[in-house]
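Protocol step 4 of 6.
Sequence for Transposase IS701-like DDE domain-containing protein (Microbulbifer okhotskensis) entered exactly as in the expression construct, tag removed. Do not edit the line below.
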Amino acid sequence: MTITLAAIDASFVNKSGCKIEWLGWYFNGSAGESQRGLEISMISITDLKSNTAYALDAQQTIDEEGRSRIELYADHAVKVAAAIRALGIKYLAADAYYSKVKFVSAIIPTGLHIVGKLRKDANLQWLYEGTYKGTGRPRKYDGKVDFDTDMHRFDYVGFLNEKTEVYTKIVQPSPSGISVIHEESRGANGERYRSACNLG
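Step 5 output, structure tokens:
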């Protein structure tokens, strides 16, 4: 088995009844809507050669007053981080929902790097690459990244496959840390899909 990365995702469990503890409203991906039931946060390790994931740790999502669910998912990942790294794994893959400051900032100190799809509303800032003119505070940023008009500012790497072109650039996600934008895919409807690898 060739283990290359770990992955985290939540799984909806369809349950009903007044005697079941911790029932709540959770997103059911199969139905595309929130439904009443239970939820399990699952962390798996992957074997890309066999296209298979193996469960490493599961934790039931139990809401806590004053805390968001993304914080609960982050707690789960932090708890399992040492076991992930003990397997020689450095990368944790997650979907766009996890691309939030509270999740990313909790994971970075564990030594894991996050690979995930960027949210469509991701606030990315260009790092200023001009010269310092010697007056006032040095300029850090050079405007917000616009994928529709700014692709010429990325470094082109090449084709990953017939549908995916790879570009790279270090930018500033506000305010979670440094990331590399590394992939752009086009779906059947022409929609662009982008992902990022956190370097924090």
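Step 6, annotate. The longest strand covers residues 33-47.
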